[in-house]
Write the structure tokens for this entry.
Amino acid sequence: MASPGVPSYAEIAHSQTNGVSNDDMTYSKNDNEDGDVFKLVGRAIHEHPKGKPYATAISEQPVTFQRQPYIPQPNDPLLDSGTARATLAPSVQSPHGTTEGDWARKHQHYTVVQQHAEYWDPDHDGIIWPSDTYRGIRDWGWSIPLSLLATFIINFNLSYPTVPGFLPDPWFRIWIDRLWKDKHGSDSMSYDNEGRFRPQNFEDFFAKYDRGQKGGLDIWDLGRALKGQRMVFDFFGWSAAFFEWLATYLLLWPEDGVMRKEDVRRVFDGSIFQKKADEYAEQQKAKKGRAYASRAIP
């Protein structure tokens, strides 16, 4: 809050961008050099983003221009993007999270990271066995070797942090109610350390790495993202992020090579997993129907 008689950041930004005077005085670089508030705001008023009393990029550090964050606008439907959501995974395009199939309402008892894993818990006992992981992946149509490899990577690496004790689980099971303990670095940071969803971080990820504003990420964008999000010496995070995004790309397998932002968002809340399994089942059913029809033709 500004001191009495001293204009706020917003008032200074407004006067600089719109030429409006505050208390019969227009503040500028020249006539307000000694003003405490202007010293704090400074050049930010004149640079990026326009009309904001802060800067998200400076010319001295080009990477800040190359990777611009998401900047909320006055009429954006996504409210309080910087506040993590416990049960919703919203975006600018879907400010209420996933509404298809009444997903958001039906999953209010789960955090977003728990929703992400629910697909692999068909009996809803809160425990994901390796057999559950394998079954869920195979239902997407992945090959047996690839499904076995993915199951090993997932359960071997994610089991121990969720174990409700000190000894490793010999069956490499994953406990969903402790899944927040599997949070790692060097990713999009869209989950917080308690399993909530961070809309700002999710939007930042696409704002920074979606070259050309395609509405999604292609393989080259993803490569830049993996490199750009790396944290120093975070070898586990580097490899985990690589395999997670590789699995996401294989799951979505976009025809034009671009993973759509909304499809990725639905990976975070898990709502797309059963949809992909159902799509594969329909494809197999249709294939069998065509095969039967071709045999029936004399």
Summary: DSSP finds twelve helices and four strands in the chain. The beta strands are 127-128, 174-175, 216-217, 259-260.
